[in-house]
Amino acid sequence: MQVDPPTTGSDAYKALRLEKSLLKQSQVYSTKLFRSLTVDLQGVLLAEAQLQSEELPVFAFVEDSETWFLATSRRVLWSRPSFKHQLRYGQIREMGMSELDKVMRQYEASGDWDAWEDEIGMLRFSSPWFYFVDDCGVQLDVLLPPGGPLYAIWSAMRFMVQLERIHPCQV
Amino acid sequence: MKPKWLLKPLLRAIFLEETCRLLLAEQAEKSKLYRVAAVEYRACTLLDDSAVNNYKLGRCLIDADSMSRAHLALKTAMSKNWTKEEQVDKTACQSLLDEIESKNRVVRGN
User: Fold this and answer.
1) Could you tell me the pTM of the whole model?
2) Nearest 5°: phi and psi at A83?
């Protein structure tokens, strides 16, 4: 039986596009899809997220019950010990790796590109700090698994911010 | 022997490298650190010598005041194939190239 594709702009549509965007980075992340998580983990995340009607959870990177990152069809939520935050995709103005700006500024001035290659080579696969800047200009730091997973999440979030501009959430 | 077992992880590593460098380049460009952005976009063109990567490199080189290298990158970009989704970038690339060439004509005219 053939299933109808979701209506363009709906939560199901956004969830499907987000899932494809993540898996485009690597099929390895199929284990991070919400439906692939254990029932216990799903329960923890659902209790934290308090999803709105029609909103769908898509993927999550979970370290333990206090340190996790969850992306849904409408927003992104993250937690680390004694800190929880969430942003709708429409609220995200900028994002990037927290430790990079300072290093980039230093090399922009010096122009020592050999040293830059060495430094960035180390930093880009070891730094777990990521940030979002919200629509009020507030920078919020997020702890993510460094290396490939961080770039996969970054790429997927960038995609969702663009998708949200095309199909803004009506709720 | 089919090298498929070797090719797949290699392609995945190249894809990750390009994604990573593209995101770093965009962050640098947004922070107006154009020389760093140009270095990162240059790395992207080595991994994937596409029209868009060359256009982005050229765009940053203009802001980094490297006009002759920007001209070369934009010319390279225009000689490549552009997909349907990249037509907006193609138009922007052509107008940057026209701008540089008209400035060059003025300089030569003087």
Assistant:
1) 0.88
2) -150, 125
